[in-house]
Structures are given as C-alpha cells and as structure tokens.
Write the structure tokens for this entry.
Amino acid sequence: MTSLPPQPLSPLDGRYAGAVGALSEYLSEAGLNQARVEVEVEWLIALTDRSLFGTSPLTDAEKESLRGLYRDFGQAEIDWLAEKEAVTRHDVKAVEYLVRDRLSALGLDGIAELTHFACTSEDINSASYALTVQRAVTRVWLPKLQGVIDTLRRLAEQHRDAAMLSRTHGQPATPTTMGKELAVFVWRLERVAAQVAASEYLAKFSGATGTWSAHLSAEPDVDWPELSRLFIEGLGIGFNVLTTQIESHDWQVELYDRVRHAGGILHNLATDVWTYISLGYFSQIPVAGATGSSTMPHKINPIRFENAEANLEISGGLLATLAATLVTSRLQRDLTDSTTQRNIGVGLGHSLLALDNLQRGLGEIALAQPVLDADLDGNWEVLAEAIQTVVRAEIAAGRSQITDPYALLKDLTRGRRVGGPELAEFVRGLDIGDAAKERLLALTPATYTGLASALVDEVAAR
C-alpha cells in the first residue's frame, strides 16, 4: 500500500478550514512569527526614537521600510524562518536573525545590535501572544459570537407571541413563548460577550527574570520600566510590570474561562433547539441536494446543532486545560506554557466552528406553530398553577372558605390529563368570587404566558 501525500492532521486545517481559516492569520505558527517580527521591529524603533546608545531617530521612510518586514510578511519569510530554526532549534532566535538579515538588506546595519536588545524570549512572546490572541478574539471570534446573538435576537422578536408549553424536568409546565425562551439565551450570551470584550491582553518586557537587570547594566540612567510600559501600551496591549521571566498568563486564564463559559451557554442552546426540533416545534428547511441519511430518504438531521455540541465540548475541554496549565510555572520559569500556547488556535478554532454551525443551523429552521398549539391544547392541567394561586388570593381576601387549594388542585390534576371542559366545570364549582371565576374561565394554556412576550423587549432594543 502506498503512503498518502502529506495531509492535515486536524480537521480544522482540512475539512473545516473554510469555516475557521480566518483564525490562522493570527493563531498559526506563521501568524505568531509575524507578530514576533512586529514586536522586534517596533522595539528597534522605540530605542532609536530615544537616541539610545548613540543612535539617531530613523526617518519616516526608514521606519516604513522597517515596518514592511511585518506588514509584508509572507511565504519567503515563513520559509526563511523554517530553515533557520532547523539550525538554531530556537524559534525566537530565528526571528531575531531574520530581522538582522533584513536590516542589512535595508542598509540599516548600524542598528543591528539593538535587535532583541536586552530581551528574553518571553518579552517577545508575551507581547506577540497578546497581540495575536487579541486580534483573533476581537476581529474573528467576537464578531462571530455577535452574529449568533443577533440571529437569536431576530428569532426572539419574530416569535415573541408564539405560545408554547414549557417543560420543566421534561414534564408539561407553565406555558411561555418561543421568543422569550430564545431571548434568555440572548441575555446570557450578551453578558458573557461583554466580559470577553472587556478582557485584558497583557505583556511583560522586563528581561530575563523580570528585573531589567541587563537594561540597567547597559544604561542605568534610563527609566526602563516606564519605557517598557510606553512601548507595550503603544502596541495596543496592556503592560504587566511585576513578573518572573514569564508574563504570568492570568489574563489568558480569565479569557479562556470566559470563552468556555460562553461555550457552555451555546451548548445549552444547541441541546434546547435540538430538543425543540425533536418535539416538532421547529421544522428544518430542506437544503437542495443535501442528504440526511444514507438509507432513510425522508430524514433531515439536526447536524448543525449536533456538530456545534461536539465542537463546543472539544473547545471547552482544551480551553480548560489551557487555563489550568498556564496559571502556574515552576519558580521563575518553565516551558510548559510554550507548547500549551501553541494550541490556543485549536481551542478557539473549535469554538468558532461551533458558532458557524449554530448560525447556519438557526437560519435553517422554521417554527411549526400548529404543533405548539396542539401541545398546549393537550395539556390544560398546566392551568392548575393559576387556579390554586387565584384561590389562595381569594382566601386571603376573605372571598373563599377553601382550606387547602394546592391539595385540591393536586388531587384533580397530578399524573393525569384534564381537558378544557372538565377544568371549566371544576372552576365553576369553586368557592371564589365571580370576578376571579371569570378570569379563570377565560384562561387557556395558550394565553397563560404572563409577561413572556413583553420580556423580549429586554433584549430587542440592545
């Protein structure tokens, strides 16, 4: 048997590349190296801007040509780094050599020794990861999450008055509306999305053990912590002043826990919509040419929601591992974080894939109101809650001599179906005021939805 040509091992790079490819611009090895070049170049510019060690500020043209090293980063640089790393066995050192090589080509050999000046690898890496993760989350993941939220909001508004039977513990319960139930997910997701949007992305830039020792040895009169802070904040990320050799990664732990939290809510959404489809509340809109089953031609499987479930579970498990691993490092430094962080894109990738499945799945369902109506009409016993509550109010008001309204309704309805006529006859025989009796007689399962419709306004305007 002949061997296959090289194939992607992860489905994110193969079958699902079209859905998650936008993340690779930031969270691939190439994306990380591009960010590393960016940090190295901007550090060179920061040092020369302050005329340190006898240098002069670069001209605007020189700065632009230097910034072209990361702005135009492409296949040539990817290949160059791969060859160099095969020799150095050190990825950040290979990036330093790349920048030095390109400085020579640009005629800027005079500042070559300031490349990677006083930096430990984590100075470059922490800034690069902060930049790439920030860009991946804010430019790719959050907009996709917002797209799902917006789709849910539209469905909530569309179905705000669509009365349906609730199911608490899987059993018929006080009716609600489909719109209100979907609005609950909008409310939950918007809260977590706001937390993710407010996330910090931190970097350190303080040398081998976080003490600026080499910096001070080279130039004791510079306020290196302040210079480092201005540099890092100038990149658009936050500065962590107090660290060991590594940035402590607490911001990553917080972020991945929030993304995982969002994934838990999305998983709940997927299982609920799957259940509504199973109950017949939603019908699935056929996609031309698609096959639901290899043997049963009639089937339209809810695969979007099932795929979302699976990918959210994979993402959640990996993000939990990232958070658990990155929160600790032995003494001043160990390298467990190095290989761990290379899987950030995998964790976010499966989450992004789930979001894509959910958004597409929500666009391929239609509410089957007749099914909802029939379900409501077959469960008049859910009005027992309303009846016993009204009776209790009548007792409190002195208009009824009933002694145990809950037990009275329990005897009538628990474990059995009660039809509308039977319930109406029961209400007419109750010892309550006429006004209360009329309100109950006018009530149906379809109208016993309280403020469900109005509650959709809580998310409609946001």
